[in-house]
Design goal:
mainly alpha; single chain; elongated; 133 residues; 5 helices
Length: 133
């Protein structure tokens, strides 16, 4: 698929769902059409195109009059969660998580902690100090 055909497909989806559709509905329509992450497999939000073609999708959406950036919601989920689940998850994981991450129905985050402090459960330690008997 070339850039012109991708633009035409994108504008067709925008027309079908409408510029004022709720974000989750708009993103769901993009997912179903393979326009969510164009480099993903067909049926899993993509069209098996070069990732460089994603910009053409987002530009067509903005040109149609809708403010849009794929990573504007759920940045960690879309940027890190989607590719990780796609690569390492089972088909069951794909069906359960991928679309919901993109639409924002499921929100993913990543937590960090200082070693041996806060939520670093793996780094917990304890010690005993004799105090008296």
């Amino acid at each position: 698929m070339n850039e012109a055909a991708l633009r035409e497909l994108t504008l067709s989806v925008v027309d079908q769902v409408g510029l004022d559709a709720p974000e989750v509905d708009f993103r769901s329509a993009l997912w179903d059409a393979g326009l969510a992450r164009v480099q993903f497999p067909v049926g899993k939000g993509g069209l098996e195109l070069s990732p460089s073609m994603q910009g053409a999708v987002e530009k067509a959406i903005r040109d149609a009059g809708r403010s849009f950036a794929a990573l504007s919601i759920n940045t960690i989920g879309i940027g890190m969660g989607l590719p990780t689940v796609l690569t390492y998850g089972s088909d069951e994981h794909h069906d359960k998580h991928l679309k919901k991450i993109f639409t924002g129905e499921d929100f993913w985050c990543q937590m960090f902690s200082e070693p041996s402090h806060g939520s670093d459960v793996a780094g917990l330690s304890s010690r005993a100090v004799r105090d008296g008997d």
